[in-house]
Amino acid sequence: MVKSKAIEVIRDDLWKNNPVTVQILGICSTLAVTNIFLNTLVMGLGLTFVTGFSALTISLLRNIIPSRVRMMVQTLVISSFVVIVDISLKAYVPNISRALGPYVGLIITNCIIMGRLEAFSSSNKPGIAFLDGILSGIGYSWILLVIAFFRELLGFGTFLGMPVLNPLMQSLGASNGWIQWSFMIMAPGGFFMLALFIWVSNSLAAGKMAAEKK
Amino acid sequence: MENVSPWVIFFAAIFTGNILLTYFLGMCSFLSVSKQIKTAVGLGVAVTFVLSMTSALNYLVYYRILVPLQLEYLRYIVFIVVIAATVQLLEMFIERYSEGLYINLGIFLPLITVNCAILGVSLFMVIRKYTFIQSVLFGTGSGLGWLLAILAMAGIRERLNEEKIPQPLRGPGITLIITGIMAMAFIGFSGIVQIQ
Questions:
Q1: A95, part of any domain
Q2: What residues make up the domain containing A111?
Q3: pTM of this prediction?
Q4: B146 CA to chain A: closest CA distance, Å?
């Protein structure tokens, strides 16, 4: 029984009811950093940490928090974990911390975290709530990593800062090498990539549903 | 940042550095509330109003309280509390004194606390080291820029209802593509004023 619930949580968070493509939640704070893969990875790790541990905390406190002030308590718990993430980033990876700028702080207003706390952690046991929190974070991050992969690859011609497309194009005989799509680095590239991703995932879901009907 | 005219910052916040179209802030409510022009305007006005108030309040709290006490790292917690309190007070105030305004504006106020644009503006204000006047005009300008973006989107979406859009692309998909096209159009403004 417990095991089947865990499997259900895993499937829901990572694909079936994915926070980004299906629920369209919380894209504000992190879409902005998807033009460089490494920054997105750090942001995704930070977000997963915050989602997991605030889910655990809220679940542990679920019988103590009066329901009238629970939103305020949730916000405060989330912001405390965000402060931890922010200070750690500043101490260990100052360059990335500077590049992420205000977006680390904006994890607080990421609707996914609040949504999971409200819908899941406040009515479930700590273990499963922690799993759900971590997995929502991962479910959110992997999509942004896919987007970031393409934006960095096309925009800079690199992956994790290593030139990829330039040598490839030259070995294929193009003398100019890779011409960077600077459009991909700018904001519109982010909007288009996310729209394409949602389009593909909705098409796949629709195809599967049609197959199940038959 | 002191040598930049506040009005330059104001216009930059509306056009060249639009909070939504270049910094992706406030996307959640932008996607969900942009179906009708009337509600879009209501939310946009409420956001502008709250932004100009919270940017002033957070400036004072940050530079008068947190910096002297060397508690800068607490700014996330303090800012979000100030924003939540402002929105709550505003809602009570409007409900008490103006029923018409409450019906038109009040229903949007609870949505605003979780709008990332509000917290984002306060954080940008700290990072870019704006002065008080610059911060207030930056807040108001960002709000107006957000209003402009959601108004344009609502106008387009009202017409989209009658169009044949591929099924998987309906709703958020097509809205994001149009937002992308709008962002491209706004890049055209980038020569007008230059900040950072």
A1: yes
A2: 2-209
A3: 0.84
A4: 13
